[in-house]
Amino acid sequence: MAGILVTTREKEGDGKVDDFSLRDLLAERAGEGLDLYARHSNPRFVQILRILGFDRQWARAEGAYLFDRNGTKFLDWLGGFGMYNVGRNNATVRRALEDLLALQTPSLPQLGLSDLPGLLAEALLQVAPASTDRVLFVNSGTEAVEAALKLARAAAGRPRVVAVENGFHGLTLGSLSVNGSPAAKAAFEPLLPGIALVPFNDLAALDAELRHEDVALFLTEPVQGQGVVLPEPGYLPAAQELCRRYGTLFGVDEVQTGFGRTGTMFAGQHWGLEPDLVTVAKSLSGGYVPVGALLLRSSVHDAVFDSLEHSTVHGSTFAPNDMAMAAGLATLAELQSHDLVAHSARLGDYLLARTRPLVEAFEVVKEVRGLGLMWAIEFGEPRRGSRAWRLLEARQPGIFAQFVIGPLFREHHILSQVAGHSINVLKGLPPLPVDESDIDWFAGALEQVLEQAQRLPRAALGFAAHAAATLPLRLRR
């Protein structure tokens, strides 16, 4: 142990003493992270990073940017899968955490509470949909979904749950059960019983499931993260009305779309939704510490926590810890004081204006779509046909997007992601403090890369054949 984590320091008058220093440890072991992770945690993930050329040694991050050990600045178009709405290493959130540590607050007395959980619950409900008036804290988005499934079935006294095809809600057992991707679930069957999936934007299919009046919860993302699929006009309000008609609770997964991502505090506000349950997480802590919450109607909450005996029927040891609560309060303050929600709406419009012309400029671009700073570009076979495209897609569906994200990273220093398994969609979730120059950086780079990528040169065919044989190109959301 002494040779790995403990450094030896000289202290005046005391001789040699053992002391832990994170700063010294990181300096001494700089650059070893990928090899250590491959050896001790997940070698296959590290292999994917190396094949794709994403095995960069990162040194620091700030706002919408990452910096490698050579000092090269990268635009973060991935945003930690949507964690960094207020920007990486946000100073306001950092100061709140520094204050908290200096105060030595009584975090998690367990048989008791510090002030912070109640303060964050109050602040959340001030910006949440008016239909919710209780908060249950959890550690992550998937835990929020697990809580929604559990509490909804108990409150409604019904066994079934309906979710949406192509949806993503997490990778723990219950959340995976309501995921819409068969590929993500195949290795883990059997999952929870009583789950039905219906197509997104299909009200008739939803009606057919709900009319049995045995469905406790209908759960949907307002904008689907996998592919950034937008609802058709009127779909979400009509789905909510169907739930009311048949006595089903209406749940909205805002884990990725919440806290300004789509240009409103919560995406459901675009359609005036009044959900019974709302799951939130990801950016709530500014990306510093895990935190999530289930926002719900008091009638749903009280149907489960219905007595003193049942006051602890659901919870999590670390969920209302003071670091998470302080980070959440600071994040909400940062969103409001810098008007980042309105900024997301304005920059989202600018992003669409800069990138929608690519549909006409390149035959390989099928559609550009987005809401706020949740954005996607979808690729398809050129309208005049392409034998090379068909050969590549036969080997690995969705491979063309790799021809775009790879050069964006290597040549233009932009970190981006594919938007789901086996789909040709590049997705953007940049930190909300990006400005017009960042949008121009991305849009200009994208245009240059598409000029190269749509030609599908021989070298690209060779890369595709190798990648298709070695990579399950499967990234979350």
Give a written overview of the molecule.
The two termini are 38 Å apart. The chain is built from 19 helices and 17 strands. It folds into three domains: 30 residues, no CATH class; 177 residues, Aspartate Aminotransferase, domain 1, CATH 3.90.1150; 246 residues, Aspartate Aminotransferase, domain 2 (3-Layer(aba) Sandwich), CATH 3.40.640.10. It has 477 residues and is α/β, with parallel strands linked by helices. 44% of the residues are buried. The C terminus is likely disordered. 40% of the residues lie in helices and 16% in strands. The strands form four sheets. A seven-stranded mixed beta sheet has the order 6-12-11-10-9-7-8, sandwiched between helices.
Average residue-wise pLDDT = 92
CATH-defined fold name of the largest domain: Aspartate Aminotransferase, domain 2
Characterize the main sheet: 7 strands, mixed
The Cα radius of gyration reads 24 Å
Question: What portion of the residues fall into strands of 2 or more residues?
Answer: 15-25%
Low-pLDDT stretches: 472-476
The total strand number stands at 17
Q: What separation lies between the terminal Cα atoms?
A: 38 Å
Counted by DSSP, the helix tally is 19
The helix content, as a percent range, equals 40-55%
Class of secondary structure makeup: alpha/beta
Question: Which strand order do you get reading across the main beta sheet?
Answer: 6-12-11-10-9-7-8
Output the CATH class name of the largest domain: Alpha Beta
The CATH architecture of the largest domain is 3-Layer(aba) Sandwich
CATH homologous superfamily grouping of the largest domain = Type I PLP-dependent aspartate aminotransferase-like (Major domain)
> Total domains, how many?
3
Q: Judging from the principal axes of the Cα atoms, what is the shape?
A: globular
